[in-house]
Amino acid sequence: MLGTVGVAPALREVRTTLVPDYFGGNMDTPELRAGTTVYLGVNVEGALFSIGDGHYRQGEGETCGTALEGAMDVTLIVDLIKGNAPAWPRLEHDDALLTVGSARPLEDAWRCSQVEMVRWLVELYGLGELDAYQLCSQLCRSPLANVVDVNYSAVTKIAKELLPESNPYAGMHSSLRSRGALLH
After folding, report:
1. What residues are paired with 38 via a beta bridge?
2. Least enclosed by CB within 10 Å: which of 21, 77, 109, 143?
3. How far is it, in rounded angstroms, from Cα 42 to Cα 115?
């Protein structure tokens, strides 16, 4: 998995790669594995996309601040999808939709990921916010990702088998899968 996937923050901020936030960054979630499609909002011209922090293995939460880390050869496809950028990172697997929130305290990171999932459910299914909120509460799993960095990261994950079929971002994940671009 990659510990760090992100774009530049807005307003010409200078940030260390250790601090995850709304732009991605060092989220350190095992969900950033081969076969994952990551959706990030572009905050500055050119996005200034960055990856790194290869992990061969890491538990949920990266408890002690280090995983089994090392060099990796990574193949990526980067594409620009105009309009409807997420406020927080969104991830898609063949079997789940996921959102990541990063903040301190941990409760704020969790809330950010939950709110972003509610927004995504509203977008995908045309639900009212309260209905999407209730659905999220009934279906989601909330694994911790990073609890060692300046900001913590929490994940909200809903299995696709529990949701009606949808095509997030015009079916980008499915399109990549059909082209054989997502490896496992």
Report:
1. 91
2. 77
3. 19
Distance of alpha carbon 152 from alpha carbon 109, whole angstroms: 6
Kindly give the interhelix angle for 129-139 and 106-125, rounded to the nearest 10 degrees. Answer: 120
Instruction: Kindly write down the DSSP assignment for every residue of the chain, as one continuous string.
Output: -EEEEE-PPSTT----TT--BTTEEE---TTSSTT-EEE----STTTT-EEEEEEEE--TB-TTS--EE-------------S---SS-EEE-SSEEEEEEEESSHHHHHHHHHHHHHHHHHHHH---HHHHHHHHHHH-B--EEESSSSSEEEEEEEEGGGS----HHHHHHHHHHHTT----
Tens digit of pLDDT for each residue in 53-74?
A: 999 998 887 777 778 889 999 8
